[in-house]
Specification:
heterodimer; A: about 260 residues; alpha+beta; Alpha-Beta Plaits; Pseudouridine synthase; 2 domains; nine-stranded mixed beta sheet; two-stranded antiparallel ribbon; 7 helices; about 25% helix; B: about 650 residues; alpha/beta; Rossmann fold; pyruvate-formate lyase- activating enzyme; four-stranded parallel beta sheet; about 35% helix
């Protein structure tokens, strides 16, 4: 989608607190308004109803929080990329903070295609909101990961199908009680760290929890879910999306 | 005050559109509750998406929050899933700004734009732990206030609302704040005392200060209980809209809502004189906003909100003086409004209007809506919607020839003197419109949207007996059959809901029991067709021993005491009665902005004037120019005292 003459920018932002209840589409609309409030030189699509050229990364479920969401926006002329985070944060709803920006390489691959791994923290309780025993959880995780498959039932286009999500699970780690002290503010629920592939077929945190619950014969409720990272994997390395295709880094790399 | 967020948050995982309940809109505030400030909860008793854009509540929200002695927050009716979750967990109604307990505010104020939301008012009060009936409230409970167009007949809600604000609220909310503030500082003694003080504020109607005597089903008399309570409550009117450039900080919701755009009110009031239109009658006189202020509000509003669409709102925006210059200026103001689309809701039906529309919709010309309201010129003279067939055809010709493909036409059925040839005139017009469109594009389509007419208080049609459910259905089916294979689509509003709206629109105090009965039987969100069931309303009427037809389909006489006679919209009863007679004689009345005064009463009694920049009517429309106002044959006015069938026969 990117032309040669434009000024593409990648933006990293958070979704924290109450704003986690708005949808992916709502986030997009709020960004479009923020871009206009800050009078960014937006590039528009052609056609009957021109839209700003903005493309978002992987959708985050309503209710989940994130430290690491991304979008790419195409501008028509250069802007001060360093000044963007503060300016945009001021124009966005509370809880959506822009934490980094970079000028993108022309023709950098789209986020949707290039992000291949994501990481979540999940505070788990039983259905009544009571924290689960760590031992039970540890046994369940080990049992699930050591099996040949981990099947969940998905509904797609009104049809149910049984899918194995084990290939999409890179790791599930039961964090030490002290590893994420700030995370479960509501209490002392154990925290699982999911590292999940998004390609070719991804798995969602909720699906992983359902699979674990089935394996362990327990109830698993996600009290809080936080996306901590998204990565672009290239040549065996995990790259943060701002770093992966930044214009300046690429220049430096070429120069060296 | 009780912070409820920790109890609300766990419920949100299980409801649809949880962002309805989080607030945080750009422009919203989180006021600090303090003993020195009267706390107002402004409630729109429908879903967030419908309630948030309401301009009236947004204006009052800002005005109150600018005051030292007041603060305001907002709440909306929780949708059924959230309502059930809240009740199951014992979570009361809360404000969206700071998630405070709704029942702990000093003033609980409802904006009432339509009658079918009345049962939601009771639901909101009950969810907040506030007794629904005023007589059951104690000093610790909020003072329950209501405003908006529907309260021009406050009586059906008299049992539930402590004080109604009739007319513009900008000034009255400050005066109410002062009275409630004094009561609060004095330790919230008797409610009776504070209500009596409220009753002395101009435009404030306190129903408990009035006795109603009945003579059988009829009202014999409505009288104040005390000497210092006014016999008639006159509406409040803001004389100069230029003094009130609100909202200055229009709320920008995080999720999609109706009218999701910047809205700038360009004038209030309308003197077109459409006889069915309550809004036009009760908001007189016309008060235009200065053009320069409109420009500033548009420019600054777009800059602040980031919206890419702005609507110039009013009851008939093409009537704004110098509308063409204003529109051209805004469209060409690339500096301030670059890549912004402009919309003009409530457009007149004429070629001039289409010219303006083509000026603003340069690219995407999909649909255009006109409201001829009546199917024949005869009935349009009766309702004083003075659009000739040629006006409509010229507008439609203009639309299709300039690239629009869909035309939507709004009509009312069940109008006074309506005969089947008038009803069928709707399908004739629709067919003709399709025919015109097909000259330009094979894709041309037309939709005729028909709604049953509900007579409203303070209009010339307030004496008219509404068509019953069966009669409206018959007319709908007449149209449906006639429009088969015509290329035009028919859409209609449920005649059963129209009937219930009739009960609530012209009801008296006894209808309060009916509203409560419907609510107690689960009848909330009644304006949502999937939630509406007329049986609930008819059962409630039966249980209260009231005859629905007496309230809905019966013609009223000149002598009858109407339930809202002690509320004054400024229109002389004689004027309305004469206009009703003129209607029956098929006699149209041009717009008084550009013709001599008819002495309707508003300007003279309230020492007001129309604030209009142009002494001449806008170009294009037949209405107001005196063109072709034919006089119909005489209809003896006495007919209407004798019952429905004779008038219906014409």
């Amino acid at each position: 989608m990117r032309g040669d003459s434009g000024f593409p920018v990648r933006v990293r932002f958070t979704k924290h607190g109450k704003v986690r209840f708005i949808s992916h589409r709502d986030v997009a609309r709020n960004f479009e308004r923020a871009f206009r409030i800050e009078q960014l030189p937006l590039a528009f699509s052609e056609g009957f109803s021109p839209r700003p050229k903005v493309s978002f990364g992987l959708a985050l479920s309503v209710g989940y929080e994130s430290n690491a969401e991304y979008l790419d926006v195409e501008l028509t002329e250069p802007v001060d990329v360093e000044a963007l985070p503060d300016a945009l944060t001021a124009a966005l709803p509370e809880g959506i903070d822009v934490t980094g920006t970079c000028r993108l390489l022309d023709r950098a691959p789209a986020l949707q295609e290039s992000v291949s791994t994501v990481q979540f923290l999940v505070a788990v309780t039983d259905a009544q909101g009571t924290p689960l025993a760590r031992e039970v959880l540890a046994t369940t995780v080990n049992q699930a990961l050591s099996g040949d498959s981990l099947v969940v039932t998905r509904t797609r286009k009104g049809r149910e199908s049984d899918d194995d999500i084990l290939p999409a699970i890179r790791s599930i780690v039961l964090l030490d009680a002290t590893a994420a002290p700030e995370f479960d503010t509501a209490g002392d629920a154990p925290v699982l760290e999911f590292t999940l592939a998004t390609q070719p077929r991804g798995a969602r945190p909720r699906e992983v929890l359902d699979a674990l619950a089935q394996v362990g014969g327990i109830e698993l409720h996600d009290r809080r879910v936080l996306r901590t990272h998204q990565w672009i994997e290239r040549g065996g390395a995990r790259l943060e999306p701002l770093a992966a295709d930044a214009f300046t880094l690429a220049l430096e790399a070429r120069a060296s | 005050m009780t912070e409820l967020w920790p109890r609300v948050e766990p419920l949100l995982a299980g409801v649809e559109k949880p962002a309805r309940y989080i607030g945080m809109e750009r422009g919203s505030v989180r006021p600090v509750h303090r003993p020195s400030a009267v706390s107002w909860l402004l409630v729109y008793p429908d879903t967030y998406e419908i309630g948030l854009p309401n301009q009236g509540l947004q204006i009052l929200y800002e005005i109150l929050n600018e005051r030292e002695d007041a603060l305001a927050e907002r709440a909306y009716a929780p949708w059924l899933d959230m309502d059930a979750a809240m009740r199951a967990q014992g979570v009361p109604l809360f404000s969206v700004d700071t998630h405070h307990h709704a029942g702990e505010f000093d003033v609980f104020a409802f904006g009432l734009a339509a009658e079918l939301v009345y049962t939601n008012v009771l639901e909101c009060l009950d969810l907040a732990g506030v007794p629904v009936r005023g007589e059951d409230r104690r000093p610790e409970h909020p003072i329950v206030v209501a405003g908006g167009h529907s309260v021009f007949n406050p009586e059906p809600m008299a049992d539930f609302v402590d004080a109604f604000v009739i007319g513009d609220g900008e000034e009255a909310v400050g005066e109410i704040t002062e009275v409630v503030g004094a009561w609060k500082r004095g330790g919230r003694a008797s409610r009776e005392a504070v209500l009596r003080d409220l009753a002395s504020i101009p435009g404030v109607y306190v129903p408990s200060m009035y006795e109603v005597d009945y003579d059988g089903p009829a009202i014999a008399e409505v009288r104040p209980r005390f000497d210092d309570v006014p016999e008639v409550v006159e509406k409040r009117t803001v004389a100069d809209l230029g003094d009130w450039p609100y909202p200055k900080r229009q709320l920008v919701p995080l999720i999609e809502v109706v009218h999701d755009r910047l809205n700038v009110e360009v004038f209030r009031g309308c003197t077109r004189g459409c006889r069915f239109c309550q809004a036009g009658m009760i908001t007189r006189p016309v008060r235009e906003r200065p053009e320069e202020q409109v420009r500033t509000m548009v420019r600054e509003g777009l800059r602040r909100t980031g919206y890419d669409e702005v609507a110039l709102t009013s009851l008939s925006t093409a009537d704004f003086s110098g509308i063409d210059g204003l529109v051209a200026g805004l469209v060409n103001d690339q500096e301030g409004c670059g890549n912004v689309s402009l919309s003009l809701p409530s457009l007149r039906v004429d070629a001039f209007t289409v010219g303006i529309a083509s000026e603003i919709q340069k690219v995407r010309r999909t649909g255009l809506t006109f409201a001829p309201e009546g199917g024949t010129w005869r009935i349009r003279q009766v309702i004083n919607k003075l659009i000739s067939d040629d006006d409509l055809f010229a507008a439609v010709e203009g639309a299709y020839s300039q690239g629009w493909q869909r035309v939507k036409l709004y009509f009312l059925i069940g109008l006074p003197t309506e005969m089947d040839e008038d009803t069928l005139g709707i399908s004739e017009l629709a067919r003709e419109v399709v025919k015109i469109g097909r000259k330009y594009t094979k894709k041309a389509s037309a939709t005729a949207s028909v709604g049953g007419f509900v007579p409203k208080a303070h209009t010339p049609f307030q004496w008219f007996g509404q068509n019953g459910v069966e009669e409206l259905r018959r007319k709908v089916f007449l149209l449906r059959d006639d429009l088969r294979k015509s290329g035009a689509t028919l859409k209609w509003h449920d005649p059963a809901a129209t009937f219930a709206e009739g009960i609530a629109s012209r009801g008296d105090r006894r209808i309060g029991r009916v509203i409560e009965h419907v609510w107690r039987n689960g009848g909330i969100f009644q304006e949502w067709s999937e939630r509406f069931d007329l049986t609930r309303w008819l059962d409630a009427m039966a249980a209260e021993g009231l005859d629905p037809d007496w309230y809905v389909t019966r013609h009223r006489t000149d002598e009858e005491v109407l339930p809202w006679d002690h509320i004054a919209a400024g229109l002389h009863r004689d004027f309305l009665w004469d206009d009703w007679k003129a209607a029956l004689q098929e006699h149209g009345l041009p717009d008084c902005r550009w013709t001599p005064c008819y002495d309707c009463g508003v300007c003279t009694d309230f020492a007001l004037e129309h604030v209009v920049a142009s002494p001449v009517p806008p170009a294009g429309g037949s209405q107001g120019t005196g063109q072709g106002l034919g006089f119909g044959r005489e209809v003896p006015v006495e007919l209407i005292t004798k019952g429905q069938t004779q008038v219906a026969a014409g």
